């Protein structure tokens, strides 16, 4: 995984079926969580992986609402930290490698790497 300070925003994928649309069931949440590419870390502004997914790059603190999050990276020396206050302040909720939460609540986030990680910053 490249270590850069930029972030990317992806357009959400609409999932339709013959009957109309999916409900907010587990199937819709699984489909939305699949928007997070392999080996990446992602956040959504709404619970249940709703809204526009943001793929987070390393080591930057970004202030934006977080309602769901997924650490889809296999790097065990990295973790996603979701903070209750802007500017990455307060005690964070920590999601480790392949961890996720469809109902985390935060106002800022960071893709943190252990300083001892040779591939890190």
Task: Provide a concise account of the structure shown.
This protein is mainly beta.
How would the blueprint of this fold be written?
Layout: E1 8-9, E2 16-17, E3 20-21, H1 26-33, E4 41-44, E5 54-56, E6 61-66, E7 68-71, E8 78-83, E9 93-95, E10 100-101, E11 106-113
Antiparallel strand pairs: 1-5, 2-3, 4-5, 4-7, 6-11, 7-10, 8-9, 8-11
Total helix count?
Answer: 1
Number of strands: 11
CATH topology: Gamma-B Crystallin, domain 1
State the share of residues found in helices, binned by percent.
under 10%
Level-2 CATH architecture:
Sandwich
Structure description:
This protein has 121 residues and is mostly beta strands. 7% of the residues lie in helices and 35% in strands. The strands form 3 sheets. The chain has a 5-stranded antiparallel β-sheet with strand order 1-5-4-7-10, with no helix packed on it. Strands 6-11-8-9 form a 4-stranded antiparallel β-sheet, with no helix packed on it. It has a two-stranded antiparallel ribbon with strand order 2-3. The longest helix is centred in the N-terminal third of the chain and has 8 residues. It is globular and about 40 Å long.
Annotation keywords:
121 residues; mainly beta; five-stranded antiparallel sheet; 1 helix; disordered N terminus
């Amino acid at each position: 995984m490249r270590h850069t300070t930029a972030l990317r925003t992806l357009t959400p994928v609409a999932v339709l079926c013959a009957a109309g649309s999916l409900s907010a069931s587990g199937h819709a949440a699984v489909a939305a969580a699949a928007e997070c590419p392999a080996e990446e870390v992602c956040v959504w502004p709404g619970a249940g992986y709703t809204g526009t997914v943001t793929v987070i790059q390393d080591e930057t603190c970004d202030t934006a609402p977080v309602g769901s999050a997924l650490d889809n990276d296999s790097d065990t020396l990295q973790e996603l930290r979701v903070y209750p206050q802007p500017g990455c302040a307060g005690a964070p909720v920590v999601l480790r490698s392949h961890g996720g939460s469809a109902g985390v609540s935060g106002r800022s986030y960071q893709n943190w790497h252990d300083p001892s990680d040779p591939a890190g910053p």
